[in-house]
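#dry-run=false #mode=assembly
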Amino acid sequence: MDMEKLYQQRFKRYTTAMRNEKPDMVPIRPFVAEFTAKYAGFTCQQVTQDYNKAFEAARICARDFDWDAVVGNMVYIWSGLTQANGTKYYGIPGVEVPVETGFQYREPSEDDAFMKSDEYDQLIADPTGFLANVWLPRTSMDVAAPGEPTSFRNNMAFLKGGMAMLNYFNAFGPQGAKLRSESGTVSAIGGILKAPLDIIGDKLRGYIGLSMDLMEKPEKVKEACEALIPHLTYNAISSADPDKNVPIGFWMHRGCTPFVTKDQFNNIYWPTLKPIIEAIWESGHQTLFYAEGNWDDHLESFAELPAGSIVYHVDQGDIFKTHKVLGSKFCISGGISNYLLSYGTPDEVRSRCKEVIDGVAKDGGYIMDASAIMQNDTSIENLKAMTEFTREYGVY
Amino acid sequence: MIEKETKAPKPGECITWDVKRKDFPKITGDEEQIKQVWQDVDALGYMYVWQCLLSF
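#status=ok
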């Protein structure tokens, strides 16, 4: 088979759908994480510890399934790096969690939050300095804060951490080239974005601490979000696909109801996210809204964005409602429940795929995928059913 | 001790050229090139700090 020809067909199919236009058939872009290990015969420990094994597992899946686009490594956390810089907050398979369990984020208690309630002004004044001087030492078992005695382990944490990061990031280019030449598969995304409010909740204050702050000092939280805007925009654009073909991955966590109130979304989350998305679009990049959970309460806000600026991925939201509100402006992806893919039957999977294709994909602008990232509980048989049915039925 | 900057670095910067420039009493060659290389490598340090937050 001519892999370059296949790649070009898939590339055109995928990018056409992302422009909310009608390709030759519904593209398939599954976000497969620990599923790849299960399929390729590796443990979760093996693909988390050794990114070459994770890359290999991704390529084996890309070779065996008729998928248009995949991520080079969706088991994104390489523990070689997090161990090198002493990161405390992961449960790593084979160390803190069982060998066959995917890595876990262990959010600290409110008292042990990586940023304290009275430190907003420090973050606002100098976000990078705060991260380097306060946040990194608190999240690492090796990094010393300024003024503390330094150590061999402190010095090596920065040296090894920096070299490991470059080593890892530089491996994605060759991985993309191999996906292209070995199986004609497109690399689905490039770059990373998190919303200002989400990153404060995820990695700085923790969800409970942030919830208290949103009640007690909402203006300070908003000011911090505003201080993060230029940095998150810069990081998104500087890590994006230089050819501007595939979108920046935007991972949406706890900025939606009921994690925050509608007022908090309308007054803080959205006004400090929207300008980032607009700046990204002005620079020529799309953003993939990976709407983990249910963001249906906020679809009208997302509809304010320029047509074509985002691809909207549906997890537990109502994909048909999403299509009604956003479908005229944006491509939509997802909507096939992970529970169904893990515990349903192939017939049930085919039935759901038909329902989604009939309801959402009629005029193009839809990409087939599970609702959320697929881990090792996903049934191989069911993912084959999703793939094969979409190929047979999803032809325009 | 980490040197205190007079103002917060912009996105892509950790230690600005203005701060680093004071380490060189005299530059006899092409200052613009030295500045550019400093800023390019400084941006890698910035990337490390922010990617630790965002990606790992």
